[in-house]
Structure formats: C-alpha cells, structure tokens
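QA checklist item 7 of 12: single-chain prediction sanity check.
[x] sequence parsed
[x] length recorded as 330
[x] structure emitted
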Amino acid sequence: MKAWKRFLIFVALIGVVALLGAACGGGDSTDNVQVEVDGDTIAVNELDARAVEGATYVANAADIVSAVDWDSMLTVRVDMSDFIFTPESLTLEAGQPYKLELVNVGATKHYFTAEGFYQSVAFRKAQTSEGEFKAPYFKAIEVFPGNQVDLYFVPLIKGVFGSLCTIDGHEEAGMLGTIIVTGDLPASLPSPVMAAVAEGNWVQNAADLVSDADWDAMLTVRVDMSDFTFTPEALTLKAGQPYKLEIVNTGTVKHYFTAGEFYQTAAFRKAQDNSGEIKAPYFKAVEVFPGEQADLYLIPTKADTYRSVCTITGHEDAGMHGTIVVEASN
C-alpha cells in the first residue's frame, strides 16, 4: 500500500475515534473505542507507538512463553526500506507464537518502534545472526542496512497498535504502520499479569542518566567468553561512569553473559552488534554465538559486588562464572 493511502486510512481511523468519542459524551479520550476488523471487535490504541504515561507490561511473560507450543510458531516478515514498512499493516492472533523478521532492505538504518505493542506481548527473545537478547520487553529495535533482527513473542491483548521509525524525518517520509491483534487467548495459556512500567525492577530514571552522561568519556571493557571461562573473571567498574561492555565469544559453542542483579541496577543505553541496536529497560541475559560480539552500553548506578555466569546447562559448573565489583563514585 502506498504511504499516502496508509496516511488517509490513519486519518480516517482517527476521525472514527473522534466521532465515536463525541457520540459517547465528547472529550478527547479514546477509552473504550472499538472497531470491526475482519468481523472481530477490537479496541483502538492509535497513539501508542511511543511510550505513554501510565503504561504497563506483561510481568509473567516467562510463564506464557513456556506454555505455548513453539513448534506451531508462525513467521512474519517486515521489510524496512527508504522510507516505508512492507507490509504496512500486520494482523496477528492472540495466543499464537510468532517470529517477526525485521529486515532492512534500505540504504540507511531504520527503527521498528511499537512500544505500546511491545509492552502488550510476552517476549521470548530478540535474535540476530550474532546472538540473543532477553528482556522484560523491548522499547525499540534498530536494524542496520542489509541486516535482520528477529523478535520471538506471543501477542496477548486484542487491539490496534501503531508502529513507526523514530529516526528524525522517517515517520514524516512514510515509515509508519499498524499492528492488529485479533482473537482471544486460549484457555491453555496463563492470563497475562500486567504490571506498571513505573514500578518495574530496573533503573527508573535510566533515560535521564543516559541522556545526561558524557558518552565521549565512555570507557571500554572487554570480556572474552571461551570454553569454559570468562576472561577476566572479575570486573571492577565505577558507579556513574558510562561504559561499553564488549562481550566476545572466542569459544566454539554459544555462551551467555548473565548478571541479573547487576543488569537491574545499570542504566542501559542499548545493546548493539553488527546487525543493529536493541533498547530495553534492562537485559535479563545476553547470549553471544561463537566468534561473535555483543556490546552493552550502560552506566552502573549502585556500588556492590555482583555475580556473572553462563546459564547454559553445565557451563557454570565447568567454570563460567565471575564477579562484577561496582565501586562508589568519588
């Protein structure tokens, strides 16, 4: 569909929302507005491509991910060109596991941002050709030209969600779309437990800390993951100092660098590899494939001693564990 046609549909949808709002007593709220999509009545959430105040996320995503049949997973592809998503509209079914392939076929980097949608699904992981990233939910996915990032998730909440590229000028050039979730969750799946983003167990003012930090003063620290040890085993970092933590797999099998409590107390800017950038409140685990590297841009915030480990069965017992000491700032 041409961008101008998508824009007209979007305008028409907003018009429907406004008319229905007026019919229900006026005002500018879109609460309880519903539309018919393929015979399914769904709520309209047309303004949630970006973060919204009072947002929630799926707190029991791991339970839902464990309960679904991933052998029944469906694959959906979105091409990101200069400057359009193809297709511009996705229709997904609640309770169905998906792999969403985000492929940049353009000449410049592009984001696929749909934060309202991302907060409404149960994420299993994001994956590139270099590794995997796990998080409570993802905030934005940037894909570099000629590369691909895959999202594994289960839609849970019926609705219409917005998507866009948040790079300056790209939305205005036509890079926006919709994600439609239809149907009801099967009884075999746990009901989603929605928790307030503002009460999440991560650094709540991370965005401000990242914005205020002097990234030109960033220090780079490298951790080699071989079969089966971290080198160095002990890291010493300083609270308030921005870092690029290079996680390099020099071994012959895949390895995790997991440091849950440390990650929860770090202000994350992003994770990055050769395929793109991934943004999340924090990362639960980072897996790097043999011969590859993942970089974590972060600021430690709490002085303490933390544990790091490879959580693949048997790897910790073989010696893949270490410590991260965060010293107080001067």
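[x] summary fact logged: The radius of gyration is 21 Å.
[ ] second reviewer sign-off
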